[in-house]
Amino acid sequence: MRFRIWLPLVLLLSVPIHAQKQATPEAGAAPAQVSFQRDIQPIFEKYCVGCHGEGVQSNGLRLDSKQPAFAGGTSGSPIKPGNAAESALFRRVAGIGDLARMPFRSKPLDAAQIALIRAWIDQGAEWPDTVTKESAGAVKHWAFIPPQRPTPPKVSRKTWPRNPIDAFVLARLEKEGLTPSPEADRTTLLRRLSLDLIGLPPAPAEVDAFLADRSRNAYEKQVERLLASPHYG
Q1: Parts of the chain with a pLDDT under 70
Q2: In this structure, how many other beta carbons lie within 10 angstroms of the beta carbon of residue 202?
Q3: 160 close to 169: Cβ distance less than 8 angstroms
Q4: CA distances from 186 to 12, 70, 128, 190, 231 (A)
Q5: Angle at 63 between CA 58 and CA 67, to 5 degrees
Q6: SS3 category, 54
Q7: pTM of the prediction?
Q8: 52: which strand partners?
């Protein structure tokens, strides 16, 4: 009778333990989405291109560039996107089959690296055209890309832009089918400028001086005057 009472309890306690073991992910599991530049290219650079790179191509295979890698060597293409199990690249690094395990004359890749290669191939073996061997393991962040001066776009109203920035503004307006607003009168321009830079409206004498100045850089001189004012900043 005592045996009959305890047996169901033992079985009940054993179920969660067994289920927990089944749910534990295996070691070396790859992330949900594999990035070639972040995850795969560093492996190729470290373990593969010594024999399959620019200087040496064992069996005619290169793994330092996209087109030669997918074209393959004397044994055909080693990568079958979407099917790692039939891809020679995965099979060789995983030690599957009768051929020598890769990398040759080196310790095998660890489980995590093999899992990354398998997941990358099963996910379609995406290899961006812009990725080169110089960018291995280093995803270009915009903050580390040197700025380059863009070429101002062509616009229809060639006399409207006064500087390259105006050309970009006008190009977008023309794209949307809009025309620039008419320029404000000189008094309004000086008032806006003065309020923007020092937070004070211009004095009547300053307005008169600006209206009397008919030089081409009259507005620029007002900018310099206000920036030099003790009220600025």
Answers
A1: 1-31, 132-141
A2: 20
A3: no
A4: 89, 66, 54, 6, 22
A5: 115
A6: coil
A7: 0.46
A8: 57
Read off the amino acid at residue 169. V
Residues 55 and 64: their CA atoms lie apart, in Å, by 10
Do 156 and 173 meet the contact criterion of CB atoms below 8 Å apart?
Answer: no
190 in helix, strand or coil?
helix
Q: Retrieve residue 220's tokens.
A: 């620029």
**Which one-letter amino acid corresponds to residue 73?**
G
- Report pLDDT digits (tens) over 211-226: 999 999 999 999 999 9
CA-CA distance, 136 to 129, in Å (whole number)? 13
10 Å CB burial of residue 171 (0-12, 13-18, 19+) is middle
Q: For residues 198 and 192, is the Cβ–Cβ distance under 8 A?
A: no
Q: Dig out the tokens for 89 from the structure.
A: 């690249």
Helices (H), the chain: 2-23, 41-43, 66-71, 88-94, 111-122, 164-175, 186-198, 204-212, 218-227
Residue with tokens 């004498």: 205
